[in-house]
Amino acid sequence: MAQVGTAETGQGGAGRRDTDSGTRRACFRRVIHIGCRPGPWKRGLVLAALALLLGLVMLLHAQIPNGIGNLGSLVETFLPWFGLFVPVLLAGALWRRSASAVAALLLPVTVWLILFGGLLSDKSHLGGDLTLVSHNVSAGNADPAGTARDLIASGADMVALEELAQGDARRLVDPTELRARQATVTYEKVLGKTYPYHTMQGTVGLWSKLPLSDTQPLDIGGDPAMHTIRALRTTVTTDQGPLAVYVAHLGSVRVMPRGGFWTSQRNAGAHALAKAIAAEPNKRIVLLGDLNGAMDDRAFADITAQLRSAQDVAGGGFGFTWPAEFPMVRVDQILVRGVRPVRSWVLPATGSDHLPVAAGISW
């Protein structure tokens, strides 16, 4: 019995030794695992790199070349929306518990606030000597009379319209062109009751409560085969002296699967318009119209070097205007020189795929 007890005791000691050895090995593996686990500054390095890249794209957007599909202009058109990547990257950084990714996000946040932070506050003021409205009414507008009444209700002293139809309705055969021309006749009739002075040049027009003079079409390109006029220049007589008013509808842009961001006609029109403004002898200038681009786009550098955006100076928010259902970019502009914008805003939707824009200016 004693031998059996001794044997059992020896086996029990061996079992305890094996258990202790297994425990020590498990602890050793745990220490190695913890020691090899990356710390918060080493986790999420890919997220940190993406955050830095985002910040550099926004900071150096002017250096992005246009040689490949006008990539630079495309980035600048939608530059404010790049800020949406910040919360996405932040969520990833918090999920990975990455201190490096959170720190890297300081760059894009800072750059975005420098570029667009000023637009977040409302800089508008009451008052103003003149109220201006510009609207691309759209050739497919199904309610031109309602659109005209909405524009009149804004209380504007001047209303600029783009995408009007030219030609004699009696000679038009295509139903779409005929409806567009009939819509233009409706604008003339309804707006004419409130605005005694108006001019139409090709596909753009201006209705005014103040007298107009020296009106002339501007050649800013367009469809050479159609000889389409897409801009005009006129002088508005005010009690403070003459005011030069330009109305323009620059060429359309397209994102092509192979060609990238196609902007050639628009860019040519912007260049021609900038030359006309540079030669303008009047110190007071207003440019109204659908420029088919955001003012951050380098294509408008020659224009923005001469004129200020009423929205930037006296608006609240980005003032996006297109597409009307979910505006993503401000392509409809009111730009000025020699007068002070006191208010800039976007009017409610009409039957167009663009939203109208308005601004109050003071002498």
TrEMBL record:
Gene3D superfamilies: Endonuclease/exonuclease/phosphatase (3.60.10.10). Keywords: Membrane, Transmembrane, Transmembrane helix. Residues 1-21 are annotated as: Disordered. The chain crosses the membrane at residues 45-66, 78-95, 102-120. Residues 133-354 form the Endonuclease/exonuclease/phosphatase domain. It comes from the Bacteria. The keyword S-adenosyl-L-methionine does not apply. InterPro entries: Endo/exonu/phosph_ase_sf (IPR036691), Endo/exonuclease/phosphatase (IPR005135). SUPFAM superfamilies: DNase I-like. This is Teicoplanin resistance protein VanJ. It comes from Actinoallomurus liliacearum. The gene is vanJ.
